Fold this sequence. Notes:
Elements: H1 19-28, H2 32-45, E1 49-51, H3 62-85, H4 87-109, H5 114-117, E2 127-129, E3 134-136, H6 139-148, H7 169-180, H8 184-195, H9 207-214, H10 218-228, H11 241-251, H12 257-264, H13 266-270, H14 274-281, H15 285-296, E4 318-322, E5 328-332, E6 340-342, H16 344-351, H17 357-394, H18 396-401, H19 411-418, H20 422-428, E7 433-436, E8 439-442, E9 450-451, E10 460-461, H21 462-474, H22 484-493, H23 500-509, H24 515-526
Parallel strand pairs: 4-7
Antiparallel strand pairs: 1-6, 2-3, 4-5, 7-8, 9-10
Helix pairs in contact: 1-17, 3-4, 4-6, 7-8, 8-10, 17-19, 19-20, 22-23
Amino acid sequence: MALSPKLEIRQGQTLIMTPQLMQAIKLLQMSSLDLTSYVEAEMERNPLLERADGEGGSNEGDGGGESEGAGEREAAEAPSSGNEGGSEGDGDVWLSSELSDSSRDIAQRLDTDLGNIYPDDPGTGRAETGAGEAQQRDPWQTGLTTRTGAGGASEDYNLEAFVASDVSLQQHLGDQMVLAVADPVDRLVAQVLIDNLDDAGYLRLDLDDTAERMGIERARLDSILAVLQTLEPTGVFARSLAECLALQLIEKNRFDPAMEKLIENIDLLARHDYPALRQACGVDDEDLKEMIAELKALDPKPGSSFGETLIQPVVPDVIVRRARDGGWSVELNTDTLPKVLVNQTYYAHISRQARDEAEKTFLTECLQTANWLAKSLDQRARTILKVASEIVRQQDAFLVHGVQHLRPLNLRTIAEAISMHESTVSRVTSNKYMATPRGIFELKYFFSAAIASAGGGDAHSAEAVRHRIKVLIDAESPDDILSDDTLVKMLKDEGIDIARRTVAKYRESLRIASSVQRRREKRASRG
């Protein structure tokens, strides 16, 4: 059979992810902060996008230029009109005169000139030749003139220089190091150690490798480190928690032999093994309790107070309130939704002035991108509201009675109820938060695994079971500590069929110690 080439036409259907569809999916799973940053970047790139609330300025060509020019003219005329009015100008002259007299009085009392009092002012203390006589510039007068002049702030008067700025841990230690270390080479080594501190103030370096890399002896590096460990806050440059606590105890003159033994056996303290601690330290129960209280008063992270990490509070995307009819009102938080509009008037104005095909193509792409973004944001908001409303409907008992009535829920249940795909529901519930009368929760919180019921009834939510375990342990008495096996029996009596390893897993996720450690801790606190 001979082989011969031929052409065939076939028709078929394929699903293709267009770039716009991929970007729409990415928008759906963005948090409110990421979405705001993305929209801001798009508004900078696309001249047809503007804020719906009018904060983004106007892009209507001549109109925007005229308003901007009018604003500049108004700002330029304001100082002169104020001076012509008499009252404001006289007030500034009076205040300037008073401040100038006060500055000269200070200079006379200190037996110096104004240049020494105000060294930041480059013109202070020098005589400037005017029309017929030399006049000495006054710093307060300079500040008033700059503040009320038409040209705005100048380089001679920088208000930001008077605003206090946050001091980092490295800056704080660097200022002290200059006074504590005199040798220039030692200062360079000390600065390397300062730069390698973590946020808690610990030194996470291998000193042998550091000494070899810098070409100095290990003894010299240890001596520099010993000096740095005397800086404030006390406890910095420690290489372990025990060393950090020891430095603070030495500074308080409380590092006696018994306390030294306690620091050496701090792992026993973490396990609440108090009998072994008493034997290691050679003290009785009362002294051990006082020593532990002293340790608890110390700061295990001395550098954390200088942290510069900005803590961003959680802003809910959905707000749930009680409705008048007894149900629940679900609404989107408008503060987290970027409001953008497509300026069709501006597009019609500049499209007529396009000079070549490249400009027309650019404007067409900008219009398509702007329309797509506005539509995608609207679709994203509708999808979030739809998913959140179904979650509220499914978890009505939780909103009314609390976490013990949280139902087991999965993505498929929500997806089938609102006729969406599970992946869409998963993207919607990522990085989104809901404000309810019981607090702010991530949407993922309402989805939990199901734990079978011992009597064959409705399944229990894993989060509800975890909450029940915490309630039982909090209510236990020091004389009757509940073991994991006891918890399993108590939960089965309540209709929850759960294995012992699952109870242990939930207890560890709640950061609750084992029954042995809890018994030691409660006996020590009671004694």
